[in-house]
Design a protein that fits this description.
- The protein has 230 residues and is α/β, with parallel strands linked by helices.
- The chain has one domain: 3-Layer(aba) Sandwich (Rossmann fold).
- It has nine helices and eight strands.
- It has helices spanning 21-29, 45-58, 71-78, 101-107, 131-135, 141-149, 186-195, 210-213, 215-229, and strands at 6-10, 35-38, 63-68, 84-90, 116-118, 124-126, 173-178, 200-204.
- The strands form two sheets. Strands 2-1-3-4-7-8 form a six-stranded parallel sheet, with helices on both faces.
- Strand 1 (6-10), helix 1 and strand 2 (35-38) form a beta-alpha-beta unit.
- The longest helix has 15 residues, at 215-229.
- It is globular.
Length: 230
């Protein structure tokens, strides 16, 4: 272990743990062997935070929580766990107490907002034929197709679930902004990152899917955070 924390990766809406695939490879190359990518149900913030806490509790030592997209809200809620030593936000929501991802989204609507479509069961989908241009325009069309077909839709009500006590107010934080994000407006990312006074903020010329399109840069930021808390 050599003092390295367990890195727990938390995905967001319209994806699963496999969205971290390229970042996982980069972290492994850096010598991080205790890597976990939690698969959250996307049924409510409470359910998703509870699943993440279970993963945290299974870790052998200190944990670095990393959240992408809505996963940022999850780590904000679950990150108060005693074993969590730091938080990394990757083009992610970082709500304050009483705020929800949906409320933040309304402040600056993202470009792809019209491409979301609810179904009759209460799940919210990103239209398959609009997925590539909305979520991951800097990946290949083939990668976009796979992401579209395998997308994991959240219950739409999850968008309105509010944070209780935000972990970023008491834990060290790092934030990556995606300059060409069409799912979370860059203005919202800038505001959320600035108010948490992170140890470091980086901006990448990337889509919302920076974890897949810029894995080396994302892994470098995670590695920097891991060293700082280690």
């Amino acid at each position: 272990m050599s003092g390295k924390p367990t890195i727990v990766l938390v995905h967001g809406f319209w994806g699963g743990a496999a969205h971290w695939a390229k970042t996982i490879v980069e972290l492994s190359r850096k010598g991080y062997t205790d890597l976990r990518a939690v698969e959250i149900p996307l049924t409510s913030l409470a359910d998703d935070a509870a699943r993440t806490r279970k993963m945290i509790e299974q870790a052998p030592g200190p944990v670095l929580l990393v959240g992408h997209s809505y996963g940022g809200a999850v780590i904000t809620e679950a990150g108060n766990h005693d074993k969590v030593a730091g938080l990394v936000y990757i083009a992610a929501f970082a709500p304050d107490s009483g705020e929800s991802p949906g409320g933040i989204t309304q402040e600056h609507l993202p470009e792809a907002a019209p491409n979301l479509a609810p179904d009759s069961d209460g799940y919210l989908w990103l239209k398959a034929d609009k997925f590539h241009e909305s979520f991951c325009q800097d990946l290949s069309a083939e990668e976009g197709l796979v992401m579209a077909v395998t997308q994991k839709a959240p219950l739409a009500s999850t968008f309105g679930d509010a944070i209780s006590t935000p972990a970023w107010k008491s834990k060290p934080t790092w934030y990556q902004i995606s300059a060409h994000d069409r799912m979370i407006a860059p203005q919202n990312q800038q505001r959320m990152s600035a108010r948490m006074n992170p140890n470091k903020t980086i901006t990448l010329e990337a889509s919302h899917a920076s974890l897949a399109s810029k894995p080396a840069e994302v892994a470098a930021l995670i590695g920097e955070a891991a060293k700082a808390i280690g």
